[in-house]
Specification:
Blueprint: E1 2-8, E2 13-20, E3 23-28, E4 32-40, E5 42-47, E6 51-54, E7 60-62, E8 66-72, E9 79-87, E10 100-101, H1 106-123, H2 129-149, H3 161-173, H4 181-188, H5 192-203, H6 207-225, H7 232-238, H8 244-255, H9 259-268
Antiparallel strand pairs: 1-2, 2-9, 3-8, 4-7, 4-9, 5-6, 5-8, 7-10
């Protein structure tokens, strides 16, 4: 078995890459909420209350608990997975009290993508301390939102347009920083659930989608400034985008041109 590990930011978040030909391990997790994302093979997890099986395409989440994990390789004899560990306290009110499977849709799907994107960035050695700090807040917020989506019976009151405006202004002012959705909600005077309900009602977006738009606007402002030493990669990473290919696609869909085209025009003008 081989394990890659990286600390993300300074709040105790960690990302692991697990590679194995098959193993069994028992552990007692006291602090972190764990998300397991199998990439090859299958994992069987037994807790005191339930048993879970996950394969490629599944996403399992566990709060602090005791569990036994058995992994089975695929037909090529390999098991690979990503494991995200986030301190329980960092998640605020949204904590995985019981084990469960997150449907690969909405915030959970985005969480899985961002875990994969960040590991690819780490393996290339292209993640600065600033980028990791942003990534930690993004992953924490994604997990909190994904957990909230699994509890549809708990409804939150929608905020006002004025509260929405405060949230959007805060996002725009801090788009290039590692801000948390909890901080945006607090600025607007809403709970995280209330913030989600407000953005869905008035904008048809999740808060994270709105934050991504704010970050795109921040990148564009820097690109159109066209400083001679600017590079698209550097600006994208500084504004919290960890998957550069996906960033370019999203930017082009938003502004009708590639980020490199924006920068070339600005630097030549």
């Amino acid at each position: 078995m081989r394990i890659e590990s990286a600390a993300i930011g300074d709040r105790g978040c960690k990302l692991f890459g697990v590679h194995s030909t098959g193993h069994e391990v028992a552990l007692a997790e006291e602090v972190h909420v764990n998300v397991i994302l199998p990439l090859r093979g299958r994992v069987d997890v037994a807790t005191k209350t339930s048993d879970w099986t996950a394969g490629v395409g599944d996403l399992l989440v566990f709060g602090p608990n005791e569990r036994r994990t058995i992994v089975a390789p695929d037909q090529a004899g390999l098991y690979e997975a990503l494991l995200l560990a986030i301190p329980r306290d960092a998640l605020g009110g949204e904590v995985a009290a019981e084990p469960g499977r997150l449907a690969r849709a909405g915030e959970a799907a985005a969480l899985a993508r961002e875990m994969s994107d960040l590991m690819a960035l780490l393996r290339r050695g292209a993640a600065s301390g600033e980028t990791l700090a942003v990534a930690a807040e993004q992953l924490t917020g994604r997990l909190a939102a994904a957990l909230a989506e699994t509890r549809p019976g708990r409804r939150a009151a929608t905020g006002s347009l004025a509260q929405l405006g405060r949230a959007e202004a805060f996002m725009e002012a801090h788009a290039g920083l590692p801000i948390r959705i909890e901080s945006v909600a607090a600025e607007a005077g809403l709970s995280v659930r209330g913030l989600q309900a407000t953005f869905r009602r008035y904008r048809g977006l999740t808060p994270h989608q709105a934050l991504t738009r704010a970050r795109l606007e921040q990148v564009r402002l820097r690109l159109v400034r066209g400083d001679p030493d600017d590079r698209v990669t550097d600006l994208a990473l500084q504004c919290g985008f960890t998957h550069l290919g996906r960033f370019s696609q999203t930017y082009a869909a938003r502004f009708g041109e590639s980020p490199s085209a924006t920068l070339r025009r600005a630097q030549s003008g």
